[in-house]
Amino acid sequence: MIGVDTNVLVQLFITEEPQSSKSVEFFAARSQEDPSYVPLVVMAESAWVLRRKYKQSAEQVGRVIQSILDSDDFVVERRDLVEWALVNYGHTRIDFSDLLIARASELAGAVRVVTFDREAAKRIPGMELLK
Question: Which comes out higher in pLDDT, residue 125 or 70?
Fold first, then answer.
């Protein structure tokens, strides 16, 4: 198993970048026997980069995340959190990473998550605007 950073994972899906061919080649060599490991923070960062830098829609980002989850070539840290966030991502206009933060905090026993993000506080149960 080989871990991947955000910039390598994103370039698998954004093929017009200069190093994307290296990324595509790397992932083509992955298999169920030799998968790539995707840390939770890489999933969060990738969703953010795809939305903000590459202006992909929430639906496009959701399809990317789902394709990673569907492939035996990836092992995703805290897959349960990613799956939960993906289901809820489709129903909100909130950043995927905010959903991960809220759910991870809840599962760790936090009674709430404070944020300065007004939209997240309004739309995600358990998130509260810090005043």
Answer: 70
pTM across the whole model:
0.86
- Residue 125: the pLDDT is 87
**The tokens 């995707």 sit on which residue?**
38
Give rounded-to-5 percent helix, strand, coil for the chain.
55, 10, 35
Q: How does the average pLDDT of the chain come out, rounded?
A: 91
Q: What are the distances in angstroms from CA 21 to CA 16, 29, 30, 113?
A: 9, 13, 15, 40
Question: What is the rounded distance in angstroms from the CA atom of residue 71 to the CA atom of residue 109?
Answer: 31
The pairing of strands 127-129 and 113-115 is: parallel
For the four alpha carbons of 121, 58, 39 and 83, in that order, the dihedral sign comes to: positive
Distance of CA 20 to the CA centre of its chain: 19
Measure the CA–CA gap between 56 and 125, rounded to whole angstroms: 25
